[in-house]
């Protein structure tokens, strides 16, 4: 325990210095706090002390560049001085972080309960004795899976942990293929000898030309199978071999939604029809479509939302064609949309067959129905199959989420953000468009990619770390301890940045 | 720190009870300790208190089976009572572990220095603030990479961390494809617009039909790209789509090696020739072979060894065909063979282009030469890109390895094991064959898979956890704190088990 308090003291000490600097240097107006911070001791505002990346970050980039590529590094972080919604860099800047390590921090930085959990005896045991979970699990593993993962969704009865999002999706696809081939063969027995032999040469029938349908602009990961279903940006895919798998359009709505109800409904119909056509075309060609995978809100591909009716329609199509209906909640899961899982907004007729997760859930993995449990050991397997240290951490996260009502907080703050963004859009016509969100999973568009990139740079100079997505969108991916007062700082910085961008 | 000592106390208390049981119940003769244990307080012998899995493990299996498949679970572990080379289960059994979580524990269970490192302030920060390493690394990340990863191999200048072995290999293949296509285009510029557009539909030229050569019996992982190069067992591959990539035979030697030098040299020649033929055939068909991947010793596929000359020959072929020469050291790395990396035994003419690692290294990742650094940001990228908590743990492992001379220990104990196994083989002709090893990376064959499986069960009933591989092999994968006295217990148990198996 001593270590945890020590760390907390270091964090607080660092931040006192920052707050002093904040009073001296921040260009932002002081905001009245509406509620107490969910993370005690958090700064009140960002501090911008240098250009970002500052001189120390630039020095470290040169150093790191000796041993790996650094083209994607934004700045170097001082994690000991980061707290709650604020990330501190090595140059004395303390920034409001609405991107939170690509949407992967559930409780922001150095949450006191995670610091405490990091020193529990069971965490120590898990981290120094990482097991091969598929063969030698810890005595408390079933109980830990239940308390961290099985409290929601109630209607999905199985869970398989994995190390990361890509790996979770890859293994979920494998589960689809196994079930689909068993059905084609009409048997749960092990495949015939011809299949077992031909698969060793990567040839049919053992290596069948089964496929997975994904959607334009989708992002499902970066390993070769998951990358085949990713269709977000050329830089992710070009020069990498891919499988010939079908694609269908994801609805592209006109905004504001209430003014384009008929058009958007027609867009749903068009996309559903195209999805079914793609499935039928591939099935006719013997490239059987074993499943479809879709994000509830496409994130990397541009924060594209679709209606409950669209998802309901897909579920019907999947059933009709005896395919798996899989939802990839790697970015949308863990409460940010105002429900634990974004797909719970869709009023589906029964659970999806598979739901994958990672990022804020800290462990990768996927839920599935009984049907998608593999019919023999070692068909879905690897050395680690996840990491119990991450599941223990998640258990604490879930407990904090319940105690502090963080899902409700995301719904409330999200509504506050949307109101603020719509107000800004009205005051600055022609700059912000397509304002959209569920909970704090909020995005808006700039007129061009160039203006979007410029706005992000100006926001950073004002002490806000944000993320882009799609062609010209900014996405907000704050942690679950993001509150109204943080939203107000963000909105203030945005309006001020837009004024600079707009030239007034 | 308090937590660490607390945990150590719990471990010791549990083990005192076990040692008492050991004296009462062990069927094994007491072994004289030749040297002090590298992990203080470790038991002196295994304890077998129940059938394995015992009643508590069986109860837990039923419980876990409610939420996930348990067909591969061997027993449930009591990690608090495991120490050094001994794993304790929930039924009071304390077993000598020569399989160590599928070869993934570098220092056995609850090593005191890892317990201490688990409570350092920097470990706490890393574990509660897991960064997106490609964008927001910690200030000390370059230094940590150097001390944990860059001290060896000295001739490979770049390192990229990843979450697991499959993911490391997948990304290494991507690095190969990027470099190969750049060379084909004769440019380091971003690919032309036609490539960028066609890749979004998974079609050439943007999604090229590039390939990776792998070898019969190879194991490189379970995600779709790495699984395409895996050729170990049908259960890993059947029903999962694969890419059409080339394969070549891995040498299958006759043992003892010194009696079959000419035959084995001819086998090398045959396999090298077939590898080059496969490359030329695929290149002619426009399925350009961008690289080859090979294990220094094939592990999962049967602990197949090949000569330095074979690997030297492969490196020449790779150079001639302008392909990447990649060594997969996921299982062979981290000192077990008596060198830090098994390929250091091969006298290669310069470094391999890529070397991947995971398991005992605790973090996944790969080393590469400057040439394989991606030519633009975000081409090799994902959210986490590894986990600094694992790198901090590895830093401590490396420090212990140096302090306790664990690589030298592996060489010494390996030689002792080989002598012991050869003695047993002489005393029991017709039972053990193909005894082979480098360091403690040792294996031997039984006459049939059935006898191998039976021997493993008998060994377990005598308090030894071992692993099988290939058709009829037993592989030893102890941790680096496995010493001569542990080898003697193993050899005693083996000889006694063979006596049961042989019926005398």
TrEMBL record, chains A, B:
Enzyme nomenclature, EC number: 2.6.1.19, 2.6.1.22
Keyword tRNA-binding included in the entry's annotation: no
A GO biological process held by the record: gamma-aminobutyric acid catabolic process
Top-level division of the source organism's lineage: Eukaryota
GO molecular function: (S)-3-amino-2-methylpropionate transaminase activity; 4-aminobutyrate:2-oxoglutarate transaminase activity; pyridoxal phosphate binding
Class in the EC hierarchy, top level: transferase
Region forming the signal peptide: none
Pfam families assigned: Aminotran_3
Example of a GO cellular component annotation carried by this entry: mitochondrion
Cofactor: pyridoxal 5'-phosphate
InterPro entries the record matches: 4NH2But_aminotransferase_euk, Aminotrans_3, PyrdxlP-dep_Trfase, PyrdxlP-dep_Trfase_major, PyrdxlP-dep_Trfase_small
UniProt keywords, alphabetically: Aminotransferase, Pyridoxal phosphate, Transferase
Family: Belongs to the class-III pyridoxal-phosphate-dependent aminotransferase family.
Protein's recorded name: (S)-3-amino-2-methylpropionate transaminase
Species of the source: Amphibalanus amphitrite
């Amino acid at each position: 325990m001593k270590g945890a308090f020590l760390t907390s003291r270091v964090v607080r000490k660092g931040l006192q210095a920052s707050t002093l600097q904040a009073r001296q240097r921040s260009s932002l107006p002081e905001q009245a706090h509406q509620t107490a911070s969910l993370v005690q001791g958090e700064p009140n505002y960002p501090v911008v002390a240098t250009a970002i990346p500052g001189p120390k970050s630039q020095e470290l980039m040169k150093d790191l560049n000796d041993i790996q590529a650094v083209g994607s590094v934004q700045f170097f972080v001082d994690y000991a001085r980061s707290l709650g919604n604020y990330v501190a860099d090595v140059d004395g800047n303390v920034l409001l972080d609405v991107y939170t390590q690509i949407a992967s921090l559930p409780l922001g930085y150095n949450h006191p309960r995670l610091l405490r959990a990091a020193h529990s005896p069971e965490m120590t045991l898990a981290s120094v004795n990482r097991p091969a979970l598929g063969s030698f699990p810890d005595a408390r593993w079933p109980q830990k899976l239940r308390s961290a993962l099985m409290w929601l969704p109630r209607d999905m009865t199985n869970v398989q942990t994995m190390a990361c999002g890509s790996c979770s999706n890859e293994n979920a696809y494998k589960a689809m293929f196994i079930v689909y081939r068993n059905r084609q063969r009409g048997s749960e027995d092990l495949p015939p000898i011809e299949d077992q032999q031909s698969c060793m040469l990567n040839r049919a029938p053992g290596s069948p030309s089964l496929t997975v349908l994904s959607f334009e602009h989708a992002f499902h990961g970066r390993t070769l199978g998951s990358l085949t279903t990713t269709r977000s940006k050329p830089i992710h895919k070009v020069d990498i071999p891919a499988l010939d798998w079908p694609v269908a359009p994801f609805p592209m709505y006109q905004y504001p939604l209430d003014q384009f109800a008929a058009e958007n409904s027609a867009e749903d119909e068009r996309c559903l029809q195209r999805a079914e056509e793609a499935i039928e075309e591939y099935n006719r060609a013997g490239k059987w479509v074993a499943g479809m995978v879709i994000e509830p809100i496409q994130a990397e591909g541009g924060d594209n939302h679709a209606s409950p009716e669209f998802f309901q329609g897909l579920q019907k199509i999947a059933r009709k064609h005896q395919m798996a209906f899989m939802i990839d909640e790697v970015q949308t899961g863990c409460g940010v949309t105002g429900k634990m899982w974004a797909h719970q907004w869709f009023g589906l007729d029964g659970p999806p067959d598979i739901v994958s997760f990672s990022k804020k859930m800290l462990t990768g993995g996927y839920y599935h129905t009984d049907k998608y449990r593999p019919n023999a050991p070692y068909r879905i397997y690897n050395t680690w199959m996840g990491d119990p240290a991450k599941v223990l951490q998640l258990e604490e996260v879930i407990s904090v989420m319940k105690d502090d009502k963080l899902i409700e907080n995301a719904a409330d703050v999200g509504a506050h953000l949307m109101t603020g963004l719509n107000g800004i859009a009205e005051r600055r016509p022609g700059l912000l468009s397509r304002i959209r969100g569920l909970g704090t999973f909020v995005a808006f568009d700039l007129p061009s990619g160039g203006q979007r990139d410029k706005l992000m740079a100006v926001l950073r100079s004002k002490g806000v770390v944000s993320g882009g997505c799609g062609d010209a969108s900014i996405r907000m991916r704050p942690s679950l301890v993001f509150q109204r007062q943080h939203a107000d700082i963000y909105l203030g910085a945005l309006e001020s940045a837009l004024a600079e961008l707009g030239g007034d």
